[in-house]
Amino acid sequence: MAESNEVKTSSDTKEAIPKSSALEERVEKDVHIAAEEGLVATDSYGRPIIEFDKLAERKLRNKIDLMVVPTVSLLYLFCFIDRSNIGNARLAGLEEDLGMRGNDYNALLSIFFISYIIFQIPSNLANKMIGPGWFIPFLSFGFGVCSLGMAFVKDMPAACGVRFLLGLFEAGMMPGISYYLSRWYRRAELVFRISLFVVMSPLAGAFGGLLASGILSLSNIGSVRAWRMIFLVEGIITMGLSLIAFFTLTDRPETARWLTEEEKTLAVARVKSELLAQTKVLDKADRRKVWLGFWNPVVLATAFIFLFNNITVQGLAFFTPTIVASIYPTYSTVRKQLYTVPPYVVGAVFEVLIPMLSWRTDKRQIFLIAVAPLTMMGYIMFLASKDTKVRYAATFFTAISAFAAGPLTNAQVAAQVISDSARSMSLATNMMLGNIGGLVATWSYLSWDGPDYPIGNGLNLAASSMLLIIATATLLWMNADNKRREKLDVGKELEGLTQAQMESLEWKHPGWRWKP
Question: Can you give the pTM of this predicted structure?
Fold first, then answer.
């Protein structure tokens, strides 16, 4: 294909060419060639060998934004609400009603993360094989049922069982949705779209606090009272949204009824134009590609960045109500719930703003480095001051920085692999290792460490410091390895390899360059 006279090479695109019907026909023809299975759409260095109509791309992107992102964002909103509403239930008497003592609450949180970590990789591989259009709504319906079940537990063992199942169903949501979006968007575009659904995490904290306050203002719903009403209402809402998603969530561009044939072709071609040596966008699961999606130095480094960041993110999700209660102990339960909202709202703004800057610059690593000092500042404030205003302000600094790293790390691991198989694995790896940080977070704020929680805050300061160190070291290594690769003779390195063998090289392909 690279030798075809019909196809515009990357060097050709550097010249300014006047618009004409002949050019438009040629571009259209090139797009069809690029989308065709069995043909590659890049040169040996991963550069696109065709030119796309920017206006047509923008129109298509806007259409995908409207038809795909809102559905997955809404599902993820209630995914996070169903996970973190236990913090609101705690303030409303969950521990007393279930006879929990000491660190039982921390143990209950830990049970969730055990299944959540274990099922990350199996869930995302199943997502690839079954198809996100069916699998994501199935997962969502499952954790909706689990949330509903929490309304009827009578003791600690039953609650642990439900939380374990909740972790099983929620395990595939964040990597699954990120993988799903990678079927639709280019590398640079992906980070902002991931942020549009991940931003539901802080919004879930804000909206969940408001929703919990509203629900708790009711005396009862049938025989269900107090904190149980939170799980009942939110579980029913989740299940209803999931049933709708079974009919509205499109599996991939080729099956989208709301795209024209030309738009389907363009959607496939533009994603394929970034896949070095690949002859199709959705390849069959390949063991070597899957392995290299895991055994990838930048993917593993980024996953550890996400691990340290998740200590803060999940700590905020589960313990913000507890932290606020320690700052304002004399306030009513409803007022404490409302005070948890503003930090989440501010965090949500920056969770979208920073990935937007990343999208426009097609850079991710530098932003991972930039957010760490703000998190560090927040926990230094927690440790250094007992003033209530200073400590409340610290929650804003941690929320501003910590939430933005989620979409950045997911977009980064998606950008550092080539094939669809490797991407499903890289995203699951990021989430699996990353959520070990979530498990650590469940033990970061222990009851006997209150009300100032020096151990929990010190742990988060150390975690954000490690994030800064690893992110900086990874950026330096990526730049150094790219310089090394510049000296390679790609043609000589690939000599004697079949097309299938070249497709399986992934990041070991001599023409590959890390994308910081």
Answer: 0.87
